[in-house]
Design goal:
One of its GO terms (molecular function) is GTPase activity. The chain is an alpha/beta fold. It has 13 helices and 14 strands. The protein folds into three domains: 162 residues, Rossmann fold (3-Layer(aba) Sandwich), CATH 3.40.50.300; 59 residues, no CATH class; 106 residues, Beta-grasp domain (Ubiquitin-like (UB roll), Roll). Helix 1 runs antiparallel to helix 2, helix 2 packs across helix 7 and helix 6 runs antiparallel to helix 7. It binds guanosine-5'-triphosphate (GTP), potassium ion and magnesium ion (MG).
């Protein structure tokens, strides 16, 4: 029997089973089995390397964003508008069959935007190009879920479910287990007394799962069985997602208003080029990129070419910043001077552990080198920490 059939069989068994306290454990086990099978399903076929033909796009720029959605919602139209790279758009479904990359230039950074084939219900089981699209989405930093504003709200739920089935968690925080270790059932049972409903549920499932060697998970929150399975499977990807409602030109203003008020959502029209600025700003915010400008000794900072860091990709400490410039630089650094939001006063002397924030200015002081003290805006000990203003970037004060 194939993996898909096995999943179907278990799903049928779950549907047949009544939900109550007595069956809770059994249902939990079935859920865990399905999770395992789905993981297997997504493993690339033996001998192939990763995403598959037409989908192996090299990473480029400071971040990667994937466009996912049902066919003909306007993904390709949007890619062409935002990046200038042409991706064929047409009124028939499945116009796009491979992954098409483009580049967005925004805030002195380059962001790779990926157009993908439309996905359909059943994508998680390999329908259409589901497997490839999901693999590429997982390699991205954030996802833009493109939806047709004139179609049913149900589409968003169906897509979310498809992505959840393959381990993608959108706009969710990973569950926070305190411990995940083999221990005595007794301990677990004692904690079961805690009155959190889901909490008890998880422990109940676990303590009976493997009678000889009882692993247990303890959450510091009211976790569900699904959270528990996520912790045990361990291969989940937590991603930010922006819901992009396209084609608002064909719906009424009241409906537009309703969609626009939903969390993590932006309403746009590619045809009328409406609200694309807002979309870019939201995307930028969700990516959490941190631009750091270097200030060579005795000179003004270079505001044209930031070092771009990200908490999700490698971190934002002074150490990460140095590592970014040159691997061996760290050994030579005595301390750094920092101006910007992360500094408590100007300039702040910081060590390698200091965490930088967007638009900070950093001067590296090497061992055997004296700081230049700075002049003009970048002189020592001016007070209020503040973002370096746009005016200063364009016309820095004279030194
Ligand atoms: N009314 C309206 N139509 C749009 C808008 N944006 C795109 N379209 C149309 O929607 C159709 C599908 O656009 P595509 O860009 O090909 O959609 P897609 O999501 O890339 O489609 P697939 O690649 O087939 O999955 C085209 O006929 C577009 O002209 C919009 O803002 N308003
Ligand atoms: K299309
Ligand atoms: Mg397309």
């Amino acid at each position: 029997m194939g993996i898909i059939e096995k999943i179907k069989e278990i799903e049928a068994e779950m549907a047949r089973t009544q939900k109550n306290k007595a069956t809770e454990y059994h249902l939990g086990q079935l859920k865990a089995k399905i999770a395992k099978l789905r993981t297997q399903l997504l493993e690339p076929p033996k001998g192939s390397s990763g995403a598959g033909e037409g989908f192996e796009v090299t990473k480029y720029g400071h971040g990667r964003v994937a466009l996912i959605g049902f066919p003909s919602v306007g993904k390709s139209t949007l890619l062409t508008l935002l990046t200038g790279t042409h991706s064929e758009a047409a009124s028939y479904e499945f116009t796009t069959l491979t992954c098409i990359p483009g580049i967005i230039h925004y805030n002195d950074t380059k962001i790779q935007l990926l157009d993908l084939p439309g996905i359909i219900e059943g994508a998680s089981e390999g329908k259409g190009r589901g497997r490839q699209v999901i693999a590429v989405s997982k390699s991205s930093d954030i996802v833009l879920m493109v939806l047709d504003a004139s179609k049913s709200e149900g589409h968003r739920q169906i897509l979310t479910k498809e992505l959840e089935a393959v381990g993608l968690r959108l706009n969710k925080r990973p569950p926070q287990p305190i411990a995940f270790s083999p221990l005595q059932t007794i301990v677990a049972n004692a904690v079961t007394a805690a009155c959190l409903p889901h909490f008890c549920h998880c422990l109940l499932y676990l303590t009976t799962a493997t009678p000889t060697y009882e692993p247990w998970v303890l959450f510091r929150e009211d976790a569900t069985v699904d959270d528990l399975i996520d912790v045990i499977e361990g291969n989940r990807k937590y991603m930010k997602c922006i819901y992009v409602y396209n084609k608002i030109d064909v719906i009424g203003i009241d409906d537009v208003d309703k969609l626009a008020r939903q969390p993590n959502s932006v309403v746009i029209s590619c045809n009328l080029k409406l609200n694309l600025d807002r979309l870019l700003a939201k995307m930028w915010e969700a990516m959490g990129l941190v631009r750091v400008y270097t200030k060579p000794q005795g000179q003004q900072p270079d505001f044209t070419d930031p070092v771009v860091l990200s908490a999700d990709r490698g971190g934002c400490s002074v150490e990460d910043f140095c590592d970014h410039i040159h691997r061996s630089l760290m050994k030579e650094v005595k301390y750094v001077l920092v101006w910007g939001i992360s500094a408590r006063h100007y300039p702040q002397h910081c060590g390698l552990g200091h965490v930088l924030q967007d638009e900070d200015v950093v001067q590296i002081v090497k061992k055997k080198e004296r700081e230049d003290g700075g002049r003009g805006r970048f002189k020592s000990h001016s007070n209020a920490p503040a973002r370096i203003s746009d005016r200063e970037k364009k016309a820095p004060l004279k030194t």
